[in-house]
Amino acid sequence: MEIIGSARTLVEAFSYSPNSLAKFIANTGEANEEAKRLLLKFPTVYIIYYRANTGYSVYVGETNNIAQRTKTHLESDTRLRDLSEDDLEQGLQLPAEPTPEMLQSSKWKAFRDEDSTIIVIGHSLFNKSLTLDIEDRLMLYLSSVDEVQAAGENSVRIQNSRRNIQTEYFTQQYVNRTFQEIWRELRNCDPELFPLERLIQESAIFKASPFHRLNEQQVSAKVEILESIDLALTPKEGFEASQSSKLILVQGGAGTGKTVLLSSVFYELFQTRSDAIDITDFDSYDAYLLVNHDEQLTVYEQIAEKLGLSNAKKERVMKPTRFINSQSPDSPVDIVLIDEAHLLWTQGKQSYKGDHQLKDILQRARVVVAIFDPMQVLAGNQYWQEDALKELYSRAGNDVIHLSEQMRIDSDGPAEEWIATLVNDGIVNPIPTNDKYKVEIFSSPGQLHAKIREKSSSENANEKGLSRLIATYDWKFTTGKKIKPVGSNTWDVVIGNFRLPWNNQGKYSRREKNLAWAERNQTVDEVGSIFTIQGFDLNYAGVIIGPSVKYRNGKIVFDAKESHNPNVIHKRTLTVNGVKKKVDVSEGLLRNQLNVLLTRGVRGLGIYAVDDALREALLNAQQN
Questions:
Q1: I want to staple 151 with a disulfide (CB 3.0 to 4.6 A). Which of 155, 337, 355, 456 is the partner?
Q2: Does residue 232 have a pLDDT over 80?
Q3: Which residues in 359-490 belong to E strands, given as ranges?
Q4: Are 121 and 10 in contact (CB under 8 A)?
Q5: Which uninterrupted H or E stretch holds 333?
């Protein structure tokens, strides 16, 4: 008999107070032997939470003795006094090296002062390893819930004392099933704090959360990064610290888990003293996370705020230009993490007066960890010459980490290979049918749009999810408020009678503006561009390949004249053989654009091509 078939989940919620704890212990002790064993003798996971005006504050933990652990939390302030904001203003402060007991006391003040609830979770399969995995999964889900918000500078948010990196163990195969059972029980306690799993899994915050279980390659990379950071910032006795900053490059194709890895490293850097109520006051390293992508910046800001890594006193997540302009090379910070460093500018632009953002960042940090994928460079002002790339890798030396395991495209292999051959070699091979990942070709944009709407409204758990239309940047768009296209209030993707607004122009509510473009309900009837979708996953991606991508003489070719992306059309000034000259770099940029769009879908990909020859080639490839 399968073990899970006889497994039992117990979830008990009660007021977070000494009296309620005593009643819980007494009532459980008088209950049946199974309840007594699972809740008082087995390892348990627990959640403590309260609701303030701005949302929930939550703590997640696990213990081998829930009665003793809860009693310790509740009584810790009888031995130690918390310092209020008024105390701090009067000059009173925690010691420079606060004791663990004092930090522990500080954490629990808000929970004791509010009308908090504790939920104790027991399960017949729980052992230490399984409770750690369930604890991490709860952190992953709860940190992605909209209602779990930062509740003020002195309030606790979603908290936990450490990051759990688990290796293989007995009962590991039951983690998913066990968590689903627990989550269903938690929904009975508070459906707003514990919404449907699907709603959480679709959120952009969930996909970039530091609490995802890392695969072996990511764990190895994380350990290597943290060890390199420690070595660079704490040189051995007798050796002076290097005057030049250390560069660590993390390279991997789309969907290899680079963002989750970086998010996990960022969170880990603040965990040495994470029992403090405000991590920004007690961190070990002065660390920052930079990203040049508006949508991804919003996601990281929300994660950092919810986890207490960033607040009004200390901004930890920002755009590269803001960091460069606000930080002097004379006083470099400890660590800068850069997501999608291939989006950094390699020439001056707008408010950025320098000529190379990565070089400027390296002057302002002792260690720089950069996620870098040359195949996702999309604009001329991000372009790297071959000799500059060689210099970059030479600077990193042995600190170049490669990720290759595909984490996004849920393919057995054939579909992934088909996309790679199309993008890299320009060859349209027969579309594989022996793969769970489905590639579909459509003869009209309207049919593709209908498929997207169908996928978005499906009740099938495997079908439902974020499904959106995205397109190559081949239709006009401008942010000028006084300029409007003829016959419309929005710039649109127009193909014959097909017409939809595009590139993030909708009138969104205040709440929706805080969401990524793909998460907004009305965007199912819009078309996204590379600027709205790069770095994000879609359940099913509907890609409109515009007229900049053609099919001639049996191969895909790129036509920059059909593109409306000024960063592709305009030639780049480069130094060639010591002489500055204007160079057309559009072909590589357009190929990268196609690569980004075709690798957004997790479970499937739909394609419509504007070019007649390319559309015919794709339709024929589907029939073969």
A1: 155
A2: yes
A3: 365-372, 400-403, 438-441, 467-471
A4: yes
A5: strand 333-339
pTM equals 0.80
pLDDT of residue 554: 95
The C-alpha angle with vertex 38 and arms to 34 and 44, in degrees rounded to 5, equals 170
What does the H/E/C string look like for 547-575? CCEEEECCEEEECHHHCCCHHHHCCEEEE
Domain ranges of the chain: 3-201, 216-403, 414-623
Place of tokens 């952009």: 204
At position 461, the amino acid (one-letter code) is A
Q: Can you give the three-state secondary structure of 17-48, one letter per residue?
A: CHHHHHHHHHHHHCCCHHHHHHHHHCCEEEEE
The residue type of 28 is T
Taking the C-alpha atoms of residue 590 and residue 569, their distance in angstroms, rounded to an integer, is: 10
Strand order in the sheet with 527-528: 438-441, 601-609, 538-545, 467-471, 527-528
Q: Which two tokens stand for residue 469?
A: 């239309």
Strand boundaries in 75-222, DSSP class E: 117-123
Q: What is the rounded distance in angstroms from the CA atom of residue 364 to the CA atom of residue 530?
A: 30
561: region left, alpha or beta (phi > 0 left; psi from -120 to 50 alpha): alpha
For residues 250 and 217, what is the distance between their CA atoms, to the nearest angstrom? 12
In the CATH hierarchy, which top-level class contains the domain 216-403? alpha beta
Nearest alpha-carbon partner for 208 in 292, 284, 265, 149: 265
Query: Could you say which DSSP state residue 352 is in?
Result: B
Q: Which of 47-51, 306-310, 477-481, 565-569 is the least confident region?
A: 477-481
Q: Kindly indicate the confidence band of residue 242, based on its pLDDT and cuts at 50, 70 and 90.
A: low
Buried b (16+ CB within 10 A) or exposed e, 545-574: bbbbbbbeeeebebbbebbbbebbbbebeb
Q: What's phi and psi for 47, nearest 5 deg? A: -130, 130
Tell me how far CA of residue 111 lies from CA of 148, 192, 297, 330, 367, in angstroms: 15, 19, 30, 42, 37
> N- to C-terminal Cα distance for the chain?
45
At which residue do the structure tokens 């499904």 appear?
A: 467
Residue 184: CB atoms within 10 Å: 14
Cα dist from 319 to 177, 269, 289, 315, 339, whole Å: 40, 20, 8, 11, 10
CA distance 148 to 157: 8
Q: Rounded to whole angstroms, how far apart are CA atoms 300 and 316?
A: 10
485-537 pLDDT, tens per residue? 777 788 999 999 999 999 888 778 777 777 778 888 889 999 999 988 877 78
